[in-house]
Amino acid sequence: LPEGSLTSLLVDGVIPGLTAVVSFVPQIALLFFFISLLEESGYMSRVVFLMDRIMRPFGLNGKGTIPLISGAACAIPAVMATRTIESWRERLIAILVTPFITCSARLPIYLIIIKLVIPQGNYFFFDNQAVALFALYMLGVFMAIFSAWLLSKFLVLKHTIKTHFIIEMPTYKVPLARNVLLTVYEKSKAFVVNAGKIIFFMTVLIWFLQTHGLSEKYRNAETHTEQMAAQYGWDEDQKEHYLLSYRTENSLLGNMGKFVEPVFRPLGYDWKISIAVLGSFAARETFVSTLATIYSLGEVDVEEGEAEQRTVITRLQEEMRPDGTPMFNLATGVSILLFFASAMQCISTFAIVRKETNSWKWAIIQWLFMTGFAYLSAFAAYQILS
After folding, report:
1. How many CA atoms lie within 13 A of 84 on its CB side?
2. Amino acid 99: pLDDT
């Protein structure tokens, strides 16, 4: 395609945004594979039975285990799975705490940030990055269980009835490969299709905001770049890089990012990360695609005369603060991880909670609590580690 808006939209917007998320489909498919094995073998019902006594002190019965396990794939069907819980109080507790469980949409964020800030190496024969990922999953479980315990102590509802735990035990069976693979295919496809719609919309929006501006600085970007190049003796590659950065900073997107940056600055985020966080409310996985779009991963190596495609991680590793320190250091990385471990950055989950509870009140309370807790935990992590 010739140079122009359509080419820029595809090369700098849609393609980087979609590929940044699609590249994580193998890990997500593996997650669905193991969950499907548990369901097809008949072991899931036994897990429910075994967990009943353990879950009772936390305000749930054994059936509350199913939404928590299903939440590792996606919070939406997990919230719908609470319909099997007879007690409204126990069901409401399960609905409110299930989004704490690490879902597949969080996985791309975890993998990117862990790769950026956790050094490679082993700790007692365990890979450091694998331990960090496992710790985030365990953190989600802990927050869900702890929140359930708090709700069981303080949540008071009218017409609460005591229920008895009854479940039918299916026989063990060897999972059929066809059923398992079909389940993995359907759920992976649903993830890509559903996420793809939102990601496509978000990447087009981000691209438009990034490539348009109303300020005089944006309109005079090329003249300003030529003046800077003449002053410092830049080559064509340096001029192109500066022009792209200067335009982005003074675009509509840059202006929006700078407007909300003061809110997120205590967490260690600049305006670019702040925009990605705001955009991720549509769906968590758009955080990665938004960063990919903002940082414009496709760059041209003038000396070699050919396109040099760079990965998300490589580009983010090179991002620097004004003082010359890396933008994605340990403090900022841990802050991002803890924020997304707690925040309910998913409008679809918000909608399904409203539908299942038939109330805006519980959906809003859940969103405010999770987002507030996420902000405070990210703030504490950044201030301590920096």
Report:
1. 18
2. 93
Has residue 382 got a pLDDT over 90? yes
Cα–Cα nearest to 94, from 102, 109, 84, 107:
84
Supply 374's token pair: 């996420």
Let me know: does 96 contact 88? Beta carbons within 8 Å.
Answer: no
Q: Identify the H or E element spanning 299.
A: strand 298-301
Please state, in angstroms and rounded to a whole number, the distance separating the CA atoms of residues 108 and 23.
9
Average pLDDT over residues 373-383: 96
Using the structure block, give the residue that is written with the tokens 């990601």. 199
Instruction: Decide: pTM greater than 0.70.
Output: yes
d(CA 61, CA 86): 10
User: Which has the closest alpha carbon to 188: 112, 104, 108, 110?
Assistant: 104
Residue 200's DSSP bridge partners are none
Q: What are phi and psi of 218, to 5 degrees?
A: -65, -45
Closest CA to 219 of 247, 200, 194, 239: 247
How far apart CA 136 and CA 228 sit, in angstroms, is 45
Alpha carbon distances (Å) from 259 to 26, 46, 122, 282: 37, 52, 42, 20
Q: What is the DSSP string of 194-214?
A: HHHHHHHHHHHHHHHHHS---
Alpha-carbon distance of 201 to 214, in angstroms, equals 22
In this structure, are residues 342 and 377 in contact, taking their beta carbons and an 8 Å threshold?
A: yes
φ, ψ for residue 288, nearest 5 deg: -70, -45
Give the separation between CA 237 and CA 128, rounded to whole angstroms: 37
Q: What are phi and psi of 211, to 5 degrees?
A: -105, 10
Angstrom distances, CA of residue 356 to CA of 275, 351, 361, 362, 382: 30, 9, 12, 10, 36
* Sequence-ordered list of residues with C-beta below 8 angstroms from that of 104, at least 6 positions apart, any chain: 28, 31, 32, 72, 73, 74, 191
- Quick: pLDDT tens for 301-321: 333 333 334 567 787 888 888
Rounded CA separation 386/332 (Å): 8
Please list, in sequence order, all residues whose beta carbon lies within 8 angstroms of the beta carbon of residue 85, skipping any fewer than 6 positions away.
61, 63, 64, 91, 94
The predicted structure's pLDDT at residue 23 = 65
